Amino acid sequence: MSLRLQIQFLFLLLFPLFLFSQSLSSSPDVIAGTNLSTGSISNTISGLSFHLKSAPANLNVYFNGNLIRPLSSSNELRHYQIEGSGSLSFRSPGYVSLDYDIGALPLTNDQNQNNFLQIKLELENGRLQNSGRYVTGIQPKSAYFTPDGSRLIVPLLGERGIDVFRVVRTGFIYSLIFERRLRPPGGNAAGFVEAFMDLNRREIWVSNMTENRVYIFDMDSLEFKTSMSTGGIFPKVIVQNPEGNLTLVSNWVTHDISIFDSDTKELLGRIPVGGIPRGMAFSPDGLSLYAAIYDAPVIAVVDMAEGSLRSTYRLYEGVGAARHIIYNDGHLYVSDMYRGTVNIVDAHSGVLLASRRIGPNINTIVLSPDGDHIFASSRGRNNPQDYTRPGPDLGALYMLRSDDLSLVERVWGGNQPTGLAVSPDGALMVFSNFLDGNLELYVIE
């Protein structure tokens, strides 16, 4: 390990504890923002049985320097039994080893198992360097940096609130510190989904799918300003046209897109798109809106001058679930959650230019500020009984070249990586582990 990485590792052990101590004095939500990088459940064990879920799934386990084998394996969980005191080491070629004293293993009672252990390893010489894991509220659905990169906004699907973190840099070390939880007045409903940063008006818009509303907060003070009904059901993604005078919200159940006057917040109308709209992106001239249709591998093309559906682009025959969409330099980048693909489509003709299977359940995709890379979150395989419970393996984050979708790097996540954001300066990448209730921060080198 290089000297720089050794210094970074030591700093990560100490600095987040200082940050958290500062947040305790100002935040009523003392659990949110805790850095989990060094968290553990301390215990004294003379004999230990545990179930391991890991990434890589085939990593090796060493007890006091000796390779040990699992007693059994079931549904990707490996069952180990050890006797005596000492240390465990988790190793895999190309990854940084992770070592624990037996009495400090981060054991939980999870996934219907006593003494459950979840381990993921980081790459030895990767471009993506882990800079900490931070507790959020229940089910962090998405993540957004503010335009200046100083804050991170995290809408919570599982409880009423939007978590706000400060981005802190000391030298070349980055960390997050929990600032506050935004709780708009008027009820206790959960269901916050996506956000949008209106730089011109210094506003943060956040959709709430259980109330069918959009909430607006001041970007600087974080104070609540107003809320509006979308007129549709289950609002999701929020975008704004290039001119900035119109703000649009996709409505999942009613299969339409709401249009708001950005200044007056008046609902101007709703445009049917013939399917479930999720992600949206504008053409640079603002004349075309492209909407990813989740119940098919389809892009709906909306004529903004006419306020109606102009055409549809079908990526391929058969089933699919177009989820997120990005416009860049005449190309559309589209994630297909059903097929686990990222796709490049010609924005003018609808021709599929490239398609790459990345991993199971591809969720959010984000373009780097320089346009060179696509980042994609993969939730991992679904739990066969219930997709809202942890699946058989951990998810992952992928860094791809934007020109041909070739893989640059993969880092492992937790249970269902979902929300994903890259900082405006391109220095940081963050993702949310939806079922674990936390964020992971990475430095892009």
Question: What do you see in this structure?
Answer:
By secondary structure, this protein is mainly β. The chain has two domains: 47-120, Sandwich (Immunoglobulin-like); 128-444, YVTN repeat-like/Quinoprotein amine dehydrogenase (Methylamine Dehydrogenase, Chain H, 7 Propeller). The chain is 5% helix and 50% strand. It is built from one helix and 37 strands. The protein has one helix at 3-24, and strands spanning 47-55, 60-63, 66-68, 72-74, 77-83, 87-91, 98-101, 108-110, 113-120, 128-135, 144-145, 151-155, 162-170, 173-182, 192-198, 203-208, 213-218, 224-229, 235-240, 246-251, 256-261, 267-272, 277-282, 288-293, 298-303, 308-314, 322-328, 331-336, 341-346, 352-357, 362-367, 373-378, 396-401, 407-412, 417-422, 428-433, 438-444. The strands form nine sheets. It has a five-stranded mixed beta sheet with strand order 4-5-1-9-8, with no helix packed on it. Strands 3-2-6-7 form a four-stranded antiparallel beta sheet, with no helix packed on it.
CATH homologous superfamily annotation of the largest domain: YVTN repeat-like/Quinoprotein amine dehydrogenase
Q: In this structure, how is the largest beta sheet organized?
A: 5 strands, mixed
Number of strands: 37
State the CATH class of the largest domain. Mainly Beta
Low-confidence stretches: 1-31, 37-45
**What is the residue-averaged pLDDT?**
91
Topology-level CATH name of the largest domain: Methylamine Dehydrogenase, Chain H
Shape: globular
Helix content: under 10%
Task: Examine the secondary-structure arrangement and name the CATH architecture of the largest domain.
Answer: 7 Propeller
Structural domains: how many? 2
Structural class computed from helices and strand pairing = mainly beta
Order of adjacent strands in the largest pleated sheet? 4-5-1-9-8
Percent of sequence in beta strands: over 45%
